[in-house]
Amino acid sequence: MEExxxxxxxxxxxxxxxxxxxxxLMRLLLGHPRVQVTLVTGQSKAGQPVASVLPSxxxxxxxxxxxxxxxxxxxxxxxxxxxxxxxxxxxxVSELRxxxxxxxxxxxxxxxxxxxxxxxxxGEHLAPARFGTAAYALVELHREALxxxxxxxxxxxxxxxxxxxxxxxxxxxLVEPQGIIVxxxxxxxxxxxxxxxxxxxPEAAEGFRAYKAAAHRHTSEMEQELSRVAGETxxxxxxxxxxxxxxxxxxTCYALTKGDVTAEACTDAARALYEGSPSVVVRxxxxxxxxxxxxxxxxxHVGYVVDKRAGRVVAMCAxxxxxxxxxxQAVQAxxxxxxxxEGEGLRAPAMWP
Length: 353
Prior knowledge:
This protein is of the alpha/beta class. The protein folds into 2 domains: 10-133, Rossmann fold, CATH 3.40.50; 158-321, Dihydrodipicolinate Reductase, domain 2, CATH 3.30.360.10. The chain is built from 11 helices and 13 strands. The strands form 2 sheets. Strands 8-9-7-10-13-12-11 form a 7-stranded mixed β-sheet. Strands 2-1-3-4-6-5 form a 6-stranded parallel β-sheet, sandwiched between helices. Helix 1 packs across helix 11. The radius of gyration is 20 Å and the shape is globular.
């Protein structure tokens, strides 16, 4: 696309705007001073008012949900945020890139760099010619690559939390690359808007369970990004859990220390890596991050404890899965791509309590 002057708003389309990540994108983009939302699509809701499908936007956005058409999207927008399911996104992303749009994809279709690993976890890729061409949008670790990227893959929610907690330790050589365990808990909005028996309120509200233990697709992202930081291939044991709440992820990660490591050293390493980030807050050593402290915000709270008796670092990160874990991170990457202040439209504090 032709670069816009900084005083002109960027015309943005939200593709798949009727789900939770689409709703969060709309909330953030409508408050962004550099953005004009010109199109919202959703095949199953086409023709319905946005305010009916996303009632939180009543009185804020008067338009309709429209059916997707690649040429119409290209006519009305410069940038597309695609909030579509895995597999459904690849073909649409490819069509929009063919028409010159900058695309930020919130599915897993372009996050991985190895086609064999993608096939192992997700099956056949539906746009193989574009596989491996996206910049991975964990902004704090890939900021420079995002400045010139026209296809941007927004990370998964669990990898965002786990990798932000662990990357400083691996980069500073404070922990062993092997033997890492990620124990993470998420609110039920991570499962999407379509009702499922496992996320139905009577079956989720007073229970607490693990799911897809050692078999969750986000394992591949964690391993890819942490291996890059460590400079060697590593393996992660990842166990996600479903919490009886709507929003939030807490990743509690365990790694073996290299030598005599302190929580203060871990904290210093994280503060050095994330210096200048408007989104990552490194708490004092011994502080235990809480999902309530980040709810509704694009912030990640990171904290460290060292178990000297067992020789392990406990690395913790709390995020809102719909914001820093998805839509907010997409907007943050958008800001970097277009040379805006990285925190533009994202500086609102968390909703507390």
